[in-house]
Design goal:
This protein is an alpha/beta fold. The chain contains five helices and nine strands. Helix 4 links the parallel strand 7 and strand 8 (144-153). Bound molecules: adenosine monophosphate.
Length: 179
């Protein structure tokens, strides 16, 4: 399959948001462009087309938008991974590291079954702390993380390398230098 569209040009960069020194990679411009959105979803799942995937897990909040589209595309179920306190039923929970300190994320305990094959989706991987927490949560249930997919990689922050060191295949569609 060939992809015609230059996805990188559809991502908007906002300097000093949410705080000085950060280059915020804004994917709302990509999502708002019909061709770019479709191509991003197609490209994210291309290596696993034809593989049996039971669930797509999306990380709050931008991972919900992409993960929902990916799940529909590959006829898998969608599972939200949310910040603590947002899910109504019994959850499994894990602490994960942020730039400063710790936070907790949750998933419904019955959302993924032991042995299921899961693809993890988020918009961007930076230090990998968020995705690492999500991988541990899925593995804690006894399911397999078949891959982790992100539109954007910030390779200088080492997140993709961290996931690969955990034996998670990582798919990213573009990279930006720096952080
Ligand atoms: P990390 O846990 O460091 O890999 O951070 C990944 C999470 O933070 C993702 O959910 C991203 O949406 C968000 N994030 C981190 N850095 C950026 C950035 N420069 N631009 C946009 N989102 C970011």
């Amino acid at each position: 399959m060939t992809f015609e569209y230059d996805l990188k040009s559809s991502v908007r960069t906002i300097r000093d948001y949410p705080k000085p020194g950060i280059l915020f990679r804004d994917i709302t411009t990509l999502l708002g462009d019909a061709r770019a959105f479709r191509q991003a979803v197609d490209e994210l799942v291309q290596p696993w087309a034809g593989n049996k995937i039971d669930k797509v897990a999306g990380i709050e909040a931008r991972g919900f938008i992409l993960g929902g589209a990916v799940a529909h595309q590959i006829s898998a179920g969608f599972v939200p991974i949310r910040k603590r306190g947002k899910l109504p039923h019994t959850t499994v929970r894990i602490a994960y590291s942020l730039e400063y300190g710790l936070d907790e994320m949750e998933m419904h305990a019955d959302a993924i079954l032991p042995g299921e094959r899961v693809i993890l989706v988020d918009d961007l991987i930076a230090t990998g702390g968020t995705a690492e927490g999500a991988v541990k949560l899925i593995r804690q249930i006894g399911a397999t993380v078949v891959a982790a997919c992100f539109i954007i990689d910030l390779p200088d922050l080492g997140g993709a390398a961290k996931l690969r060191a955990m034996d998670v295949p990582v798919r990213t569609l573009m990279a930006f230098d720096g952080h």
